[in-house]
Each structure stands twice: as C-alpha cells, then as structure tokens.
C-alpha cells in the first residue's frame, strides 16, 4: 500500500490514534481456531501487522509469531513498541511468503485492517501452501463509523472524506485520494472476496453495519471517545495523507497555518451540532460513541 510510504504518513500517529481491538474479537477468532494443548509447537502469522498490535495480543497463545508488513516504517514502529523476543517482525507481503515460512508450517494466519489490499490470486495459493491441515485464517477490519447521536456531524464527515469536488469554498474533498480498489473492497466489508472451497472449509463471516443492534461477536468495535480523539483519528486516514501531498500549501492550524481540509471539516461538524458549538474552544472535550462497520472472515484448511 503506497500510503504508508508517503512522506506525509506518520506510523507513530497511526499507532497512537487508531482504535485497538477488544478482547471479544480475539475470543471469537481463537475460539474458532481451537487451540491445541499448550505443549504443542504452534506458529502464528500476522499479515500486514502494522505497528504490531495483533502480534503482541496473540503472542501468549503461540510458541512462535511471525509478523510481516510491506511498510518499512510500520515494521520499525512495531519493533520500537514491542518487547517480546517471541515475535519476529519482518518486511514482507502476503502474496509471497516463501522467504518466511515453509510448506504446512503455520497454525493460524491473521490480518487486521489489511486484507482489503491483498491480491487474492496469489494470496490464496500462498496460504494454502503454508497452512497446516486444520489450521485457520482470520481476517478482520473496520470502516466508516458513525458518531451515535451526532448523525448530522457524521453526514458532514462523509461529505468531506468521500467528496470529489469542493466540499467547502476552495477546499477539495478527500475522495480522490483513497487508494482503490482497496477502499471500496473494505467499504463492502470484503463481501467481494470469495474463500475458495478447494482448500478451505468451515467458512464463517460476521458483519456489523454501524448503528445496528448486534452482539459483541459482530459489533466488536464501539468506543466512547472525546471529540479531540476522533479528530486525531481522522488525521490518520490514508486519504488525508494523499490530500496533504496534493495540497502542500494548505497548513493545518496546529502547524501555524490557516487550516487544512480536516480543520475545515471539523468546523462544519461543530457547526452542525449546537451542543458542541456551545462549548466554544472546549468542544474537543465532548464525548461520543464511535460505532464502526466491521467484518470478520474465518476459514479452516482442509
């Protein structure tokens, strides 16, 4: 994914402001996997590991953890944040695992918020080659959350994040700067990705559309956040990194400028919510429930 190689992308900010994964999600994927006795030699493969969040969370359940990511900046950040000799972070891609794992050597392969970038014509072959019989895969991700009780602000965010023309006077929307087709695949909760039946069985899909009343196995990413935290999160969007590259003259207010697309977006969001506007400069202290759309895809090697 080219976004993580851009000079405007910050792996440190991504690690700081992206949401974490709850224990309920890990219970779901580990329950599906059905861990063997503790004495067994087990290997976890974390594909698109980012800053190492998943590798660190699942490490206690495996004897060996290999975590790969195509971004050297992400791998460096993961190593910096991790104090676990069991985890081996390497730069690598899902489409070619030959340098990292041999045939039938992986017990479980996971990918969080990365599987929408895979070239599945190569990935399914690689996973079929490297997975042990009975081993499992679990891919999951999140997209396009809503701010519950603040639907008008959510609509403004949607306009700025996906707009292709001026979304405010002289301000271009961020829509053109999403990398495709990955973003649309993610927005479709990976329904377009078919798990091939020749090598995989027990295929299970769990989906949650934001705002629906689902259990924690489906609606696993809801979080109470201060608006200041949500603002910082929006600055980790890959489309924002692309927008900044295209508009180097637009400096954020935090950088001493007149404001960039995120600043303007939040101006309009605050304007849409009288209770936030009434807080004046303290609006960042207001709290909301952020409810993301989510998916989990799990399958077992025949």
UniProtKB/TrEMBL annotation:
Pfam name, any one: Methyltransf_11
InterPro entries documented for this protein: Diverse_substrate_MTase (IPR051052), Methyltransf_11 (IPR013216), SAM-dependent_MTases_sf (IPR029063)
Biological process, per Gene Ontology: methylation
Keywords of the record: Methyltransferase, Transferase
Keyword Methyltransferase carried by entry: yes
Cell inner membrane in keyword set: no
Signal peptide: none
Superkingdom assignment: Eukaryota
Gene Ontology MF, one: S-adenosylmethionine-dependent methyltransferase activity
Start and end residues of each Methyltransferase type domain: 45-139
Family: Belongs to the methyltransferase superfamily.
Name the UniProt record assigns to this protein: Methyltransferase type 11 domain-containing protein
